[in-house]
Amino acid sequence: MERKHELLPYWISDSKERLDRDKIAELLGTAYWSSKRSRATIEAGIDASLCFGIYDENGQQAGFSRVITDGATFSYICDVIIDPGHRGKGLGKWLVRTMLAHPDVQPTNKMLATRDAHGLYEQFGFQRAEALRLERAATP
């Protein structure tokens, strides 16, 4: 799947071959939710997920997200991040809208966790709800 932005010189692809894994690791290294992940963990997450990359007119990675899904009943949206140099253009909204419309995500119940982007996701119908969590111990 590839989708060009209707007004801006950006496009989204779900092709893992296009992903700039170095850039993704760099971006995730700056986020509160992923800064302690090892490169191996980032790579494993990419390999096991449905991934979306946003690219600028030069083909450079400008954003990333991934969805863990069974394609039938459940999807967990995670690692939604836009490069700081490309923020403020609505790319995050476009990325979320594109993920939610993907045929492997659209028919499922969707979940995500955020500490600071509630307003973004509530625009798409997400509602705050109590959840339980079991977190594994950190590994070197």
Automatic annotation (TrEMBL):
It is an enzyme of class 2 (transferase). One of its GO terms (molecular function) is acyltransferase activity. Keywords: Acyltransferase, Transferase. Coiled coil: none annotated. SUPFAM superfamilies: Acyl-CoA N-acyltransferases (Nat) (SSF55729). It comes from the Bacteria. CDD domains: NAT_SF. Its EC number is 2.3.-.-. Residues 10-140 form the N-acetyltransferase domain. This is GNAT family N-acetyltransferase. It comes from Paenibacillus thailandensis.
